[in-house]
Amino acid sequence: MTDAETKLWRALRRAQLNGLSFRKQHPIGPFIVDFYCAPLRLAVEVDGGQHAELTKESDDRRTHWLAEKGVTVVRYWNNDVLLNLEGVLSDLLAHTERLAQAATTPTPTLSLSGGGRIEAFTPDGKGGEP
């Protein structure tokens, strides 16, 4: 692990961030993410200079693949972790709170209109029974 990853891990381990458990160097499919919070499906990546323009395209593909699997990816620069850990933790906490709230927001129940009768709509816009 890099110095920045080690510093962030010290702040995340033992459920120190809002009681959430994070795993380090966690495999997801063909990738290994720096940190992962399973209940929120949240991956945290700490990027250094190697993640500049040379690997941006591959990072974008990786992030897209993870998003397709329902994993939210949050990225921080090494320098931000090393020089502004409190700011990084505050931002990460905000992400976890949004994800936790989204996970507990109930999905509205759909009801059938018209007394429970299902209607089909044709391409010409006219309704009818299926």
Strand content: 15-25%
CATH-defined architecture: 3-Layer(aba) Sandwich
CATH C-level class is Alpha Beta
**Uncertain segments:** 116-130
Could you explain the architecture of this structure?
With 130 residues, this protein is α+β, with helices and mostly antiparallel strands. It has one domain: VSR Endonuclease (Endonuclease, Chain A, 3-Layer(aba) Sandwich). The protein has 4 helices and 6 strands, in the order αβββαβααββ. A 4-stranded mixed beta sheet has the order 1-2-3-4, with helices on both faces. Strands 5-6 form a two-stranded antiparallel ribbon. It is globular and about 40 Å long. The termini are far apart. Residues 116-130 have low confidence and may be disordered.
Comma- or semicolon-separated keywords:
130 residues; alpha+beta; Endonuclease, Chain A; four-stranded mixed β-sheet; two-stranded antiparallel sheet; 6 strands; globular; disordered C terminus
Task: Provide the fold topology.
Elements: H1 3-12, E1 23-28, E2 31-37, E3 42-47, H2 53-68, E4 72-77, H3 78-83, H4 85-104, E5 120-121, E6 127-128
Parallel strand pairs: 3-4
Antiparallel strand pairs: 1-2, 2-3, 5-6
Write a compact overview of the structure shown.
The protein is of the alpha+beta class.
